[in-house]
Every structure is written in C-alpha cells, then in structure tokens.
Amino acid sequence: MAEVENVKSLGALLNGIAQKVYYNNAEITEELLKSEVYPDMPQDDFHSLHEKMRGVLKSIATADMDPTQLEAFLTAQMRKLGGGGLSSEQAAAMGRFWKAHRARIRESLQAQSRWEPSLRNVNWRVDLQTASSRGSTSNTPVALVELELGRNGQDSEFVCLEFDELKVNQVLKKMAEIQESIDSIVHHS
Q1: How far is CA 36 from CA 48, 90, 103, in A?
Q2: pLDDT in tens, 131-185
Q3: CB 139 within 8 A of CB 131
Q4: What sections of 113-164 are H helices per DSSP?
C-alpha cells in the first residue's frame, strides 16, 4: 500500500512541476507541492526530490525523448551512483508521466519558443497592368503579396503589399543577404 501511495505522490509531484514549468500555472509553487503532496517529508529532503525530478523531466522534455530514448535514459539514471540517480519506482513514475504528457509538454515548449506575432500564411500573385487611368497602356508587372499574421489564440491580421519590379529585386537581394548571414553563423558554430 505504501508503494502505491508513493507512486501516486510522485505522479502528483511531476504533474505539479509540469503545471508550473511547462503550462505557466503561477499558482503552483514548491511550497504548495510540499504541503499537498509530501506534507510529512522534511523540507530539505523535499527540495532535493523536487529539484531532482524537475531536472530529470527537463532533460527528457528538452530532448523530446521517444520511448526507446526514454527507457535508455531512465535506465542510466537508475544506475547513477551516489544518490543522484532515480530509484526504480521514480523511474517508473517518470516513464508513465512522460508517456501521458509528452505531446502536451512538447506543444507548450514550441509555443514558448515562438515569436509573436507569427507569419501564418503568404499569398502572392503577379498582375500585369495593361492600362492606366489616363488611357495609355503600360504592360507593367505588379507583384501583390498578402501576409497573414497572428498571435496564438487570436484572429489573423492581413497586410497587403504591392511591389513593382525594382522593389521585388530589392526584396530578393535583402533575402539573399539574410540567407548569407544565417549560413555564415550556422557554418561557424
């Protein structure tokens, strides 16, 4: 019976850590978790357990471990010497928790790393202007670009741009410069 209670407590602790770290629930604190989940545990022991489980969960979430990676990682954690590793029941609780929460934690991490507003869609076309308002013909191509921008959970905003051939070439040149900068950074790191 004590093992079942300990497994439930570990699951509740992991859930609380995920609420605080990944789901931005400011109401969850280390003190609240201690008082609700491990009220009889000494503060120092709880702090050590909390930090260990938070660190292991962070490692798993950062790597977005699949089941094979998770099993290998948890096995290695159980073999750690000096008390820094996980017990078999802690590893089992972590495994069950990660299998149940992987998708939601991954979505949360992706949302936290996204710039806002983000570009949701781009539509473009090239029109050929065949006549002006004065009746003369010009046959000038015009690029029309519609950008759909939005913040997470909000409706989109649309920005429409019109470019002549000179402006299109300027934009393409700037994009090539940006790509060169990115390439130089990537190749040097």
Answers
A1: 17, 18, 26
A2: 666 666 667 889 999 999 988 778 999 999 999 989 999 999 999 999 999 999 8
A3: no
A4: none
Count of Cβ atoms closer than 10 Å to residue 143 Cβ? 16
Residues counted in the chain = 189
The model's pTM is: 0.64
- 89 SS3 class: helix
The residues near 121 (Cβ < 8 Å, ≥ 6 apart) are: 147, 148, 156
Burial of 33 (0-12, 13-18, 19+ CB in 10 A): buried
H-helix or E-strand spanning residue 40: none
Q: Residue 135 phi/psi, 5° resolution?
A: 95, -5
For 46-88, the DSSP string reads HHHHHHHHHHHHHHHHHHT--HHHHHHHHHHHHH-STT-S--H
pLDDT tens sequence across 89-108: 999 999 999 999 999 999 99
Strand pairing category for 118-129 and 157-163:
unpaired
Q: What are the sequence ranges of the domains in the chain?
A: 2-112, 118-188
